[in-house]
Write a structure and sequence with these properties.
The complex is a heterodimer of chains A (about 290) and B (about 230). With about 290 residues, chain A is an alpha+beta fold. Chain A is built from eleven helices and four strands, in the order H-H-H-E-H-E-H-E-H-E-H-H-H-H-H. In chain A, helix 3 runs antiparallel to helix 7, helix 3 crosses helix 9 and helix 7 runs parallel beside helix 11. Chain A is elongated and about 95 Å long. By secondary structure, chain B is an alpha/beta fold. Classes of the chains: A alpha+beta (about 290), B alpha/beta (about 230).
């Protein structure tokens, strides 16, 4: 009775013709790649935004230890310049914190006094500023990191573009895989399809049965792929945390919305591709 | 007996199958049927006769709309069949019952599900289809075989499942291609009794056969084909 009920719901025998292993397995692999590409794109976008925001502030002024007493004078000169949005002294405690990963605890080491500048525009040439500052505070050095940061931001943009291209490629391959699977299903059930056709089934009946089956298989495969991507992305997120500016909880940094959208998106791709493939094939019948 | 209107009307119909090497949609093969002009009245019973290769199966394929003519005008169930109005054909097909020469049962479906298939395709609910299927299987002598798969049935039983599937929707037109080819003479007579009963209930029946004995036992108008042309009708 159960068998009869099963085939009454699936009279084309698509559960057997369209394996519930091969197609979902392939879609799962593509969903995993898509998840990685999406996460890469999101990560690159976040880094680019952070670095671009930091580019304007990526100018530091160093006063030699013997000139540290002139910190207030240097700050006053810098804050008076129209090109400078803000100038803040970096505290000794923060300097030690920044240097600890590189130098360890070295309390006796003389450290330069450092001022962090934020310019009104990242494109401003810092050389004239350095000249004007050194006239007041001899030995003061101004270092601009903006060009490096800009290059890093450009690199992040490129990485994001590549990730999106990979995503598009994965979607294209998914369409091709579903089309091939659909054709295999049609070949396996060709006679049954012709019988359905001769008994008065519409293209919508036949294509709909294929599309529902393939859409479900694709969505299930994508769900598995997205689930597999979670631990991989958490590990990557954990490793990338230092580049993102500090402590990041791996689970909160994951692109959960993107991961959640993968199964329905794969299902829609499967459904639409199967609809098109079957209807195209059925055009050969009268 | 007067028949008020035409169930099937062929007017100068020709059918040419595409050559295997021709591009899709281009019919370049020999003409399987040529210049067919005849009318089958509503409620009639007609034998379709002719030697092997005369075109009987092709003619039946045109009648049940598995094939469209490459020329001429075909009218079935009062509707002119046109290639540019293909969306109308499934509804027409659901009003035609077909008994295929090779049964064409779905091997993974039980006898019950094979017979229920046309009703399910027509959108009938399971609860309303079940009594009809059970009744028609009993009518063809297959009560108790509902759960059997086709390969678990004899050739004659498979033939009766095919007939039950063809008539379960109470079609207006029933076409049968060599329906007695796999049956012994007793089963063949029993089958013809079923078909004539359908005809008595109002269904237009067309039966292609080689069996002269069958035609002799069930006298009716005949349509004789030779080399794709009608050589006798009446």
């Amino acid at each position: 009775m159960a068998r009869r009920a099963r085939y009454a719901r699936d009279p084309l025998g698509l559960r057997r013709a369209l394996s519930d292993r091969l197609l979902p397995g392939l879609v799962a692999a593509m969903a995993l790649l898509a998840a990685l590409a999406l996460a890469g794109s999101r990560g690159a976008e976040a880094l680019k935004d952070r670095w671009q925001a930091g580019a304007a502030a990526a100018v530091t002024v160093q006063l030699p230890p013997e000139q540290a007493v002139q910190m207030d004078q240097a700050l006053a000169v810098l804050r008076a310049m129209p090109e400078v949005q803000s100038a803040e002294a970096v505290s000794a405690a923060r300097m030690k914190e920044l240097l600890r990963p590189w130098l360890g605890e070295v309390p006796a080491l003389p450290l330069p006094a450092v001022i962090e500048l934020r310019l009104v525009n990242a494109a401003i040439d810092p050389a004239p500023l350095a000249n004007r500052l050194s006239e007041t505070v001899p030995g003061a050095e101004l270092e601009a990191h903006g060009i490096w940061v800009s290059r890093l931001a450009a690199l992040a943009s490129s990485v994001q573009g590549v990730a999106l291209a990979v995503l598009a490629l994965v979607a294209g391959v998914a369409v091709a895989v579903v089309a091939v699977a659909t054709r295999a299903g049609i070949a396996a059930r060709r006679e049954a399809i012709e019988i359905f056709h001769d008994l008065g089934a519409t293209q919508r009946d036949i294509a709909g049965r294929f599309a529902r089956r393939i859409g479900l298989l694709a969505a299930g495969g994508a769900l598995a792929g997205a689930a597999l991507a979670v631990p991989a992305l958490a590990a990557l997120s954990s490793m990338a945390a230092p580049f993102a500016g500090g402590e990041v909880m791996p689970w909160t940094a994951l692109p959960w919305l993107d991961l959640a959208l993968l199964p329905p998106f794969a299902g829609i791709i499967g459904w639409a591709t199967a609809q098109y493939s079957v209807r195209h094939w059925l055009r050969r019948l009268p | 007996m007067a028949f008020p209107c035409a169930m099937v009307r062929f007017t100068a119909v020709g059918l040419r199958y595409p050559s295997p090497t021709a591009p899709q949609g281009v019919e370049e093969g020999p003409e399987a049927l040529a210049d067919l002009t005849f009318t089958l009245p509503d409620g009639s019973f007609t034998w379709l006769l002719g030697a092997s290769g005369a075109g009987k199966s092709s003619l039946l394929r045109l009648m049940h709309l598995a094939q469209l003519p490459t020329r001429g005008t075909l009218e079935v169930l009062g509707t002119t069949v046109r290639a540019d109005r293909r969306a109308e054909l499934p509804a027409l097909r659901r009003r035609i019952g077909v008994v295929f020469q090779d049964f064409r049962l779905l091997p993974y479906l039980s006898a019950f599900d094979n017979v229920a298939l046309p009703l399910r395709l027509a959108g009938r609910s399971e609860s309303s289809a079940r009594p009809d299927v059970t009744e028609i299987l009993r009518w063809v002598g297959l009560a108790g075989k509902e759960a059997s798969l086709p390969q678990q049935l004899s050739g004659g039983e498979q033939q009766r499942v095919a007939i039950a599937r063809a008539v379960v929707t109470r079609p207006q037109l029933l076409v049968a291609d060599e329906p007695t080819g796999n049956l012994d003479s007793h089963q063949a007579r029993r089958l013809l009794a079923l078909l004539t009963e359908m005809n008595r209930l109002g269904t237009t029946v067309v039966v292609a056969t080689h069996s002269e004995e069958l035609v002799a036992n069930f006298p009716a108008p005949s349509l004789v084909l030779d080399a794709g042309r009608v050589v006798h009708h009446g």
